[in-house]
Amino acid sequence: MSEKIKKIGILTSGGDAPGMNAAIRACVRTGAYLGMECVGIRRGYQGLLENDFIELKVEDVSGLASRGGTVLYTARSAEFATPEGVKKGAENLKAAGIQGLVAIGGDGTFRGAYDLSKEGVCVCCIPGTIDNDIACTSYTIGFDTACNTAMEAVDRIRDTMKSHERCSVVEVMGHRAGHLALNVGIAGGATGILIPETPVDLENHVLARIRKARDNGRTFLLFVVAEGAAKAEDVAACIRLQTGIETRVTVLGHVQRGGSPLVHDRIVATRMGYTAVKLLSEGVTGQVVCLNGDNYFWTPIEEAVKMKKGLDEEIAVILDAILTGC
Predict the structure, then answer these.
(1) Which domains does the chain show, CATH number per domain?
(2) What backbone phi and psi angles, to 5 degrees, belong to 137?
(3) How many secondary structure helices (H) and strands (E) does the chain include?
(4) What gap in Å lies between CA 254 and CA 271, rounded to an integer?
(5) What letter would DSSP give residue 140?
(6) What is the pTM of this model?
């Protein structure tokens, strides 16, 4: 792009994640530092279609880093999923004088940004999702905070399960990805972990592990289930029917999304926000800001949306070793 970008829009889309506000703050402050005007687009792509724009200045984002959720709100948009909706969104940006867009969210957010880029909009994306399922980056904003929120709940549940010698089945988020369940289950000393990436076999993944745990003298049991793998109540019903063990179900639900982001998510969000705006200021467009270890880099959106993120190959071996003793 030859024309220098002087005005950018910022939106959050899809599920909210702790750290999104820190990313918004970083975008606005970096934009101001580089002499850009910043506009917040409320309610994601639906707000873009409805011209739900607000001016964002440095003072407007003061203190945002510690707040959970997203002050720009988020929503789904069936209209934007159509070619006509995308064209309308691009026209609304142009009419408002917005030359560049930072889109914060997951895979669906990236696809929307990619569609806008094909209409001539300069875009950069920031991965924000508690599922950590974006293949082009090793980390997505919100994952660490969500893990710790779920972990705190699991620790409390485990204490009462020990006291009553019961079994507990805890359902965590993760429709298509089991990264959250894996981390929480391993850190929480689970008897078994059920994830979408592995077809669920209740005999081998649940009942056999219960028998082994009992043989090893364990009097309490804990299973962590990703919502996309199985329903916690179905797993618990199987355990009750096949073993007679008193079993309780806890579905953590949206409590995992909320709360103040932890330090890691604030720092990653800040650095990603800075990088996205800096790229736009340098005329670099159509990119997703990524992280690998301590290295921040960027990948074309077109490539990012085609990638599929699997589990670390070593994790299966580790998981089997760790859970063998139950």
Answers:
(1) 7-142+261-304 (3.40.50.450), 146-258 (3.40.50.460)
(2) -130, 145
(3) 12, 11
(4) 26
(5) -
(6) 0.94
